[in-house]
Amino acid sequence: MLKDKKAREKVSILKPVKGEAYIQLVWRKFKRSRTAIIGGVLIAIIAVLAIFAPFFSPYDPLKCEHRASFSPPQKLHFFDDKGRFHLRPFVYNLKLELDPKTWKRIYTEDKSRRFPVYFFVRGWEYKPFGIPCRLHFFGVQKGGAIHLLGSDAYGRDLGSRILLGGRVSLLIALLGATLSAFIGSMVGTISAYYGGIIDMILQRIVEFLQCFPQLPLWMALSIAIPPTWSSLYVFIAIMMLFGLLSWTTLAREVRGKVLSLREQEFVLSAKEAGASDARVIFKYLLPNCLSHIIVVLTITIPWLILAESTLSFLGLGLQPPMVSWGVLLQKAQNLQTLGRHPWIAMPGIFIVITVLGFNFLGDGLRDAADPYSHR
Predict the structure, then answer these.
(1) Is 366 helix (H, G, I), strand (E, B) or coil?
(2) CA 146 to mean position of chain CA atoms
(3) What membrane topology does the annotation report for this chain (predicted)?
(4) Could you tell me the end-to-end alpha-carbon distance of the chain, in angstroms, rounded to an integer?
(5) Which of 161, 251, 269, 270 is most solvent-facing, going by the fewest CB within 10 Å?
(6) Which residue ranges make up each domain of the chain?
(7) Each residue's pLDDT tens digit in the chain (375 positions)?
(8) Where are the alpha helices (DSSP H) in the chain?
C-alpha cells in the first residue's frame, strides 16, 4: 500500500500544470535529477576556468623556468614551523638539493621565509579581446613562487597549462560536436522528409561510414595531416575530422523522429497552406527535434574530448607549442618519468571530471527531454 502511494505521488509530480510550456515541464523534471545538477555544476566550473584561464593562471603557461624543472606541487599552509596559525594561507619556496645517497634531485621547503597568498594581484600580461590586462585571481609577492599543481620538465606552471589546455580541448570538442550535430540533423531530416532515392543514397552513405570504427579511422586520417602545418591549421583539421565523421548516429535518430513527424497534422497543414520545403523543415520539423539534438550534443562532446586527448597523447593530434590536455599527457608515456613525477598526469584527472560531468548532464537532459516518462 505504501509503495502504491509513493508511486502515485511520483506520477503526480510529472503531470503538467495548466498553462505550463514544454520547456517548463522539461526544466521541472531536470531539477529532480541530482546527478544532472552535479554534472551541470561541474561543467560550469570547468567552463569558467577554461574561458578565463589567463585570469586564474598565476604564471604565463608558455614561459619556461628551468630552475623549477619538475617542481612538485606546493602545499598551502595555515600553520608556520613554530605552530602559529595564520588566517591567510601561505607557501614556502622550494629549494633544489641532491640526495647524497642516490644523487637524485629532490625539492625541500625553504622555511626561512613565508609567502602569503594574495587574491586579485598583478602579474604577467594577457590581452582579453585585445585589451592589456595584468589582473590575476591569486599570486604571491615578488621573490616567491606558487605552483599548486607542480611544474613540467621546463619549469612551466602545470596548473596554468592545464587551464589553457582545457580551453583548447573543450573548444575543439565543442566545435566538432556542433558541426557533427548540424550535419547529422540536416542529413537525417532531408533523408526522412524526401524519402525515395534521396533517402536510399543518404542511408547507404551513413552505413558506409558506420562500417569503420571511429577512433582507428581518426588515427589513420590524422596521420595524413602535413607535419609542416601550423598549430592553427592542425587544430582546424582535427576539428573538421571530428565533425565530418561523427554525425552518422544522430542522422539515423533524427531520421526516425522526422519519419513520425512528417505525417502529423501540423506538418500536413503547413504543406496545404503552400509552405515551401525549407520552411517546413526549419520551422516545423527541426524545432521538434531540437531537444533530442541538444541531448546528443552533450553526449558527443565528452567522446570528442577523449578522442582529442587520445590522438594528442599518441602524437597524432595537436602538437606543441599548442597546449591541450592530450598534449600535456604526452610526458606521462614515459613510465620512469611518471613514477618520479606523478603530478604530470594531473590533466587526466581534469579529463575524467569533465567527461563525467558531461555524461551526468547528458543523462539528465535525455530523461528530461521526455517529461512524460517515469524514469
Answers:
(1) helix
(2) 26
(3) Multi-pass membrane protein
(4) 21
(5) 269
(6) 74-146, 160-368
(7) 444 444 444 444 455 555 566 677 778 888 888 999 999 999 999 999 999 999 999 999 999 988 889 999 999 999 988 889 999 999 999 998 887 777 788 899 999 899 999 999 999 999 998 899 999 999 999 889 999 999 999 999 999 999 999 999 999 999 999 999 999 999 999 999 999 999 999 999 999 999 988 888 888 888 888 988 998 999 999 999 999 999 999 999 999 999 999 888 988 898 888 889 999 999 999 988 888 898 899 999 999 999 999 999 998 899 888 999 999 999 899 888 898 899 999 999 999 999 999 999 988 888 887 765 555
(8) 2-14, 22-30, 34-51, 53-56, 158-194, 196-210, 214-222, 231-245, 248-261, 265-272, 277-279, 286-313, 325-328, 335-340, 346-368
Residues 2 and 343 sit within 8 Å (Cβ to Cβ) = no
**What's the CATH number of domain 160-368, 3.40.50.80, 1.10.3720.10, 3.30.70.141, 3.40.50.920?**
1.10.3720.10
**Count of residues making up the chain:** 375
